[in-house]
Design a protein that fits this description.
It contains 7 helices and 11 strands. It is of the alpha/beta class. It binds adenosine-5'-diphosphate, the ligand CC(C)(COP(=O)(O)O)[C@@H](O)C(=O)NCCC(=O)O and potassium ion (K).
Length: about 260
């Protein structure tokens, strides 16, 4: 079996594969940083609860945008799973041609998403990943990674509002019935959800113009990440939601590096 880790700034998402089949996936918090043994205990417990023998894991692939937990995570993988993890980074085959000023600067999660999108959809793409940050990535039909935008994520933006405004409560991130709201909670929900939909649709429409100028056909707009569903329901530009895009990209990268 193949175990993949998508290490984001809020969550570490684990995916377990047998060939192309995803057997299970789990989500754990990225903070606080844990020791190798603490990561090991969590991982083994997750396998036990799923009635899966962790000793059947024969390969591990990791994508990370959180350098400070990598020592413990890699140490755990070697100690408990007895394998050397393939860590996505320079030198790992992806089939993606990174056209960033400094290709090493792009978040691994963004490249992994591009690998998955390119393989699955075989079209020019705009990939939106609603994570701690919301990333927008333009990928050409031939797998050129052109770059994109990084915006503050919905949750950290709304957390900042809750924390910094004395009279504003923490509200559930759900869509209110209108934008002219008559109470504080719905006013905040409208500002957060519709404000974010506006951010997404404006950026996507601008990226589409730039992709046309790059000679690409109309891109497919694919959303992933924890909060994709919430925004996609209101957005006029998001066409697909693929919650497992990053995990699929890690599986594909494993196959490309066999
Ligand atoms: N299935 C889900 N339903 C609702 N919220 C989610 C879900 N998965 C993740 N989230 C929330 O979405 C945000 C982004 O999660 P995630 O995409 O894992 O972030 P990152 O990749 O930056 O770690 C987090 O605040 C997380 O709590
Ligand atoms: C933008 C990100 C923080 C998004 O990561 P996440 O929200 O999943 O934690 C990550 O892709 C990153 O650290 N990128 C490096 C800078 C860049 O891509 O230009
Ligand atoms: K992510």
């Amino acid at each position: 079996m193949l175990l993949v880790f998508d290490v984001g700034n809020t969550n570490i998402v684990l995916g377990l594969y047998e060939g192309k089949k995803r057997l299970s996936d789990w989500r754990m918090s990225t903070t606080p940083p844990r020791t190798a043994d603490e990561y090991g205990m969590v991982a083994i417990n997750l396998f036990e609860k799923a009635n899966i023998n962790y000793k059947d894991v024969k390969a591990v692939v990791v994508s990370s945008v959180v350098p400070n937990i990598m020592y413990s995570l890699e140490h755990m993988i070697k100690k408990y799973f007895k394998v050397e993890p393939l860590v996505v980074g320079p030198g790992v085959k992806t089939g993606i041609n990174i056209k960033y000023d400094n290709p090493k600067e792009v978040g691994a999660d963004r490249i992994v998403n591009a690998v998955a999108g390119h393989e699955i959809y075989k079209k020019p793409l705009i990939i939106i990943d609603f994570g701690t940050a919301t990333t927008f990535c333009a990928v050409g039909i031939r797998g050129d990674y052109y770059g994109g935008c990084i915006a503050p994520g919905i949750k950290i933006s709304s957390d900042a509002l809750f924390e910094r405004a004395a009279k504003l409560p923490r509200v559930e991130l759900i869509k209110p019935p209108s934008v002219i709201c008559k109470n504080t909670v719905q006013s905040m929900q409208a500002g957060i959800v519709y404000g974010y939909v506006g951010l997404v649709d404006l950026i996507v429409n601008k990226m589409k113009i730039e992709m046309r100028n790059l000679g690409e056909q109309e891109p497919l707009v694919v959303a992933t990440g924890g909060l994709a569903k919430l925004i996609a329901s209101e957005s006029s530009t998001i066409q697909e939601i693929n919650p497992y895009l990053t995990l699929e990209g890690l599986r594909i990268i494993y196959e490309k590096n066999q």
